Amino acid sequence: MESFSVTDLLLLPLILVSVSAHEFSHGWMASMLGDQTARDRGRLTLNPFKHLSWKFTLVLPILVYIATLGHFAFGFAKPVPINPLQLRSYRRNWQRPFADMIWVGLIGPAVNLVFVCLLTLLVFSGALADGDSGWALRKLVCFAILINLLYAMVNLLPLPPFDGSRLIIGLLPQRHAIRILRYELIMFVGIIAGLALVSVLAGGMDNVVLPLLRWAWRALGLSLGDFDRLLNGG
Description:
By secondary structure, this protein is an all-alpha fold. It has helices spanning 6-9, 11-32, 37-40, 54-67, 88-91, 100-124, 135-155, 165-171, 174-182, 184-201, 206-219, 224-231. The longest helix is centred in the middle third of the chain and has 25 residues, at 100-124.
């Protein structure tokens, strides 16, 4: 059995930084647009422990993993509280009262994609040594790229409560937007059940997600050899 390396031990902090930056950005954007709920509840912070939830970050992935017989696991951080009624677009009676939800929602995936671009530039800069001798550091950077790619892709799904649904909510008239917000939890349970079913039918969620990640990796111009080595535990 391969022993843990320093690189492996740094993966958890990488995930925590990516998730914290994502959630912080939602609260920051909401604050800029008039809603101070996240600030008032102490969630406008990069402290990862403020964004973790034992229900969503620990229990949910275990339950989904068991329910799908090991084919799929899914978890997330505790969503930053947003009050759409405090946003500028609602208080100013815009034609689309929840239009500001678009920016609040999309800023999270945007932050993750900025991380992806910066880390990709680091790979291209030549600052990371090639070959096996430089693989430990390059592995860490590649994992960070992969984590942020995955987090951005999942959150851009136009389904409640993922961030992509905020685009739809922001474009809808008030009565339809409120209906989605009201039944968001029920929709989420249905989406998780649907993803679990797809996972089982496809022989594992990796058969659904990995081709998309591989395509994005190639689109960035990164080495597919590094991608394969990363996933094979190299």
